[in-house]
Amino acid sequence: MGEGRWSALEALGAERKNASLRQIFADDPQRFERFSARTDDLLLDYSKTAVTADVLAGLLGLAEARGVPGQRDAMFAGAAINRSENRAVLHTALRAGPEAVITVKGIDVMPLVRATQARLETFAEGVRSGSIAAADGGRFTDIVNIGIGGSDLGPVMVTLALAPYHDGPRAHFVSNVDGAHLTDVLKTLDPKRTLFIVASKTFTTIETMTNAQSARRWLVAALGEAAVGAHFAAVSTALDKVAAFGIAAERTFGFWDWVGGRYSVWSAVGLPVMIAIGAKRFQEFLAGARAMDTHFRTAPLEKNLPVLFGLIGVWHRNFCGFPARALLPYDQRLARLPAYVQQLDMESNGKHVAADGGPLPADLKTGPLVWGEPGTNGQHAFYQLLHQGRDVIPAEFLIAAEGHEPELAEHHALLVANCLAQSEALAKGRTVAEATAQLQKAGLPPEEVARLAPYKSFPGNRPSVTIAYRKLDPFTLGRLIALYEHRVFVEAAIWGINAFDQWGVELGKELATALLPAVKAEPDAVADPLTRGLLGALRKL
Length: 541
Ligand code: F6P
Known about the structure:
The protein is an alpha/beta fold. The chain has three domains: 3-77 and 283-428 and 462-501, 3-Layer(aba) Sandwich (Rossmann fold), CATH 3.40.50.10490; 97-277, Glucose-6-phosphate isomerase like protein, domain 1 (Rossmann fold, 3-Layer(aba) Sandwich), CATH 3.40.50; 505-539. Helix content is 48%, strand content 11%. The protein is built from 22 helices and 13 strands. The strands form three sheets. Strands 1-2-13-12-10-11 form a six-stranded mixed β-sheet, sandwiched between helices. The chain has a five-stranded parallel β-sheet with strand order 6-5-7-8-9, with helices on both faces. Helix 15 links the parallel strand 10 (324-330) and strand 11. Helix 1 packs antiparallel against helix 4 (53-65), helix 4 (53-65) crosses helix 14 (305-319) and helix 6 packs across helix 12. Residues 148-151, 200-202, 205, 208, 261-262, 347, 502, 505 line the site of 6-O-phosphono-beta-D-fructofuranose.
């Protein structure tokens, strides 16, 4: 479907991927207005890419030809689009409005969603007020979320992002099975004042189960077995396994197999966030995601932010051949957004078979490498490669119009200036002639000018997208995350892959389980020569 369009876009990509962005702007004074889109105060600026009217028309045609609108509607309607696992994909139901009716296999799931949300709110507000108390009747001052992957990154990222709204107990997160993680968190805490939330969709993940058991022992050693009931809560789809762990039903919050782990921050997995910022703010966060869902469902494709964002991703990956993208939030509180989007994007779209299990075309590239750090820090670390390295890596900048620190307005002005300067520098570059002129103006002798000019030249024509918003509040954060979720969806729909399974994580887990006895005891028990040498050496270091 859309093969003709695909080849036409390949031809455009071959011709345009190194197009002069200076020239593109010079040719079209309205370029910013024509190649940016917004919904309310959320702006997607893709003018600093080589996308021109013909490219955009081709990409929008491709989205139609690949059935993106129909695939989107099937997801929202609860169809079993996660075909390998025969599951619906309904993280959107978790933020749907009060009137929504969404059926899975003929059953409206919304009453269950609302009932669970009500229980979560009662629990979160109880912990915040102290009415849900520790074993000694005192207040919880600290909560520790034990989970990994989707049961960790969402709450970690959102809690940090919404720090200005954090008025509940302190929140801590333990994910890594490395004992250092648990140890370093626990050493700051008083068991009498600490509530643990064990978050695991499957309640089998070895890292989480190991950390949860160790945390339980720490608590029991200090307060005795009887305190476990008051100091532990759980979030999972596997209620039987939670019960077997010893966490009471009234402290257990469920979700459903139609919520993927990396899409689960809207569910009970968001409990630490709700305890940190309160139920009302959490509702604003959900409302933001709902606003983006409505926009994604109803805006025409050419004005639809997730569709445009996805199409630009496809343009860069498939038609320009760029292997990666850098996520650069100029917003310190989004420091963990790159890690969060890494899971969302790479676990969803790092795929090599088609959604129906058949082969993908051999030369079809799917998800790119996603990485990043907040600006301005990254500027002093790895931007050298973005500006002068041999690979072109499209950048994605995020910037708020307004910070949360009006008393530090100078800081925000510097942040904005740096963000805008970087996208301008990447796009414009600096020619040798310009570098020469600058050095001459600085009064350097001619031989120094000639020597230094090549070092000080930049190729330019490095594309970037900027996402701008008024202020990072719960509503906007909800919109931003949903924007990224739907962008991943659009790309997967075009590539014809299933964004909602993750079989690629299994092999490593199986091998680790098989290796564990040998690591603990006898290296010769390892049959595989790929590992035997290294394990033996490790034991002797
Ligand atoms: O191993 C990958 C994965 O299954 C992720 O998809 C998931 O978010 C994470 O592990 C944690 O899984 P669980 O919530 O079941 O512990």
